Each structure stands twice: as C-alpha cells, then as structure tokens.
Amino acid sequence: MxxxxxxxxxxxxxxxxxxxxxxxxxxxxxxxxxxGDPSYPFTLNADIRNPAGVVSDYVxxxxxxxxxxxxxxxxxxxxxxxxxxxxxxREYRGLLWYGIPYEGYECDENVVYHxxxxxxxxxxxxxxxxxxxxxxxAILGSNYVWGWESCRIAREAILSVGxxxxxxxxxxxxxxxxxxxxxxxxxxxxxxIINNLIGDSSYAFLHQLDNQWSHSPLxxxxxxxxxxxxxxxxxxxxxxxxxxxxxxxxxxxxxxxQARQFVGTDTRITGNFVGSYLSVMSLxxxxxxxxxxxxxxxxxxxxxxxxxxxxxVEIRIxxxxxxxxxxxxxxxxxxxxxxxxxxxxxxxxxYLVGHEFLTSTSGQETEPQRKLRLIR
Length: 376
Known about the structure:
Largest sheet: 7 strands, mixed
Mean pLDDT: 94
Shape: globular
CATH superfamily of the largest domain: Response regulator
C-alpha cells in the first residue's frame, strides 16, 4: 500500500463554484495531513476533476476515474450529481465519500456520508426558529432533489406544530430574478424564510430581497450557506441570516489557523471544507484498520473507526454509513457566522424514522404524530 490513488470530484467553476473550491481544499488538506503522518503506512495521491456543475460531466469524470483503477471518490456537491454517479460507483464497485449536507432519504452501501442529514441540521434549525420567530414561513428551493426534499421536510415540520406555509416555490439553478416572489413576501410578511437555493441563485435572491424589504429585519435560514459564500454578499441590513452547519470558524480557531497554513490565509474553513476533510481522514483511518484499500474490506470496518474532528468530538460512522455529527446554528455577523446555539453529536436518521418533528433534537427518536408525504 505504498500509494493509493483517490478521485476528487468537485466543481470549481459553475454556479456553485465557491462550494466546490472549498470542498476540494478540505479534501486536499486532509491528504496533506495523511501524507505527512508516518502512522499511515501509505500516501494518498489525488486525481482531481472539475465537472463545472454539469451533470453529464460528473458522469464522464466518475466513469473515467473508476475505470482507471480508482475505487474511492471524494466529492460532488449537489444531490442531483451524487445520485447521478451512484449507479456507476456501484457498477465499478467503488465507494463515494460525500461530505456535503443533504436532504436525507437515502442510504446506499456504496456511499459514506459525512454531510449532515435533516435530523442533524434542518430540524434543529426549525426548532430554534419557531421558538425565536414564529410559525408563519415561506420556503424557496432550487429545482432539484435537495430543494424538493428539504422544502417538503420543512413544510411537514411546520404544519406538524400548527404553523402556516405562506409560499413554497422552486427555481432553476441559474435563476437570478426573484421580483415576483419578493412582491408576494412583502404582502404576506412571513416570520422567517427557509432558503434552500444554492450558489448564484441564493446570492441574487438575498440581495434583491434586502433591497426591497422595508419592514423590520427578516430572518432567512439555510442549511447550506457557508462562510466562504458570505464574501459574495453585500451587507444586508434588512435581513438576518442564519445557517445550520457542522462547523463555523469561531468554533476552533486553532484548526482554522493550521489549515490556512496549507490552503492559504484567505480560505474560509467552512462546514463543507470540514465535511470533505473528514471524508478523507475517515477513508485513511478505515484503510489502516482494514489493512487494505479494497472497498469491501473498508466498508466492513467503518463502524470500528473514529476520526478526530475540529468540532472537539470523535466522529464515528453509524451502521447506515452516515457520520454521527454535531450541529451549530450561527447568525451572520460581517463575513462570519457567530454560533447562537450548539447541538451535540446526533445519530443520523436520514429517513426520519420515528422522529417527532420539532420536539426532539437529541437523537432520542419517538413515534411520529403524522405521516410524511413522500414525493418522488
């Protein structure tokens, strides 16, 4: 095991390029740490591909990597691209290490998930927001599986506590004009907004909403807005931005400083950076434990490994191949998120089995009061 080749599949150009670049840097930093640590009896070599946000290019690059005797892929950003390459990962007996928060409703034996699922980020965020702001909400999402499922879960959660969903709208990934929905929001005056848009669409919406909002500052909540994107946003005096992620820079300044020695002083160390970093570190730890990089042997030892994290907890992987993760809710202050509440590491429940909405965020699941309406 002198050298193990792995594929890094991140869109560093395209509409969500900021997220892709940040995830790539997190993976590269982990590779640097593994290769510099003599306790790992191998080195990792990265084959980096940039699909530029084009779904068909993800498939092309994934197949190219998998047919080049590379069995471990780290990356993808959107759920649509993850789902698109999973059939190829299965066919070529590979393993995808996914470090981005996602909408749940998936457990695949060829994927190891280090991004939070809804019971680890979205539901804690909603519980906080309902207590702080109220139950009349509007929901916006990008028109793909992340937007559909995240918006559906938010709707079900709010309705389960007697709330009201004033609007529930979806937009193409390249949408940049939100005048119509903003006019509706100005009339309905929600208590808060759930923003499940991604990339340039999200930035455009936030700028346009701030420009037109004349009431008291409106809370806008997200589970995918990271600190590397805040530099893309102007000051938004009419909005209060919140995000629910596994990591903010203020949680561990020492880790941030160490990482920046490798990735550059201007790099933001975000939840996506950390998710990709943990994916590579867990892969390396599993290879050591299995004494092999073969996928079957790596998967067999996943429940036995633990990985140091910058969140001051050891990250373990549950039987459903999802990481057990903490969550922090932060409010924007300048170009950073300042944590307002932290939740302990919570067992992943991607299908929300037995989860009673907005009454439990501790991982102690109970019987649901209502059935979910599953949209496919």
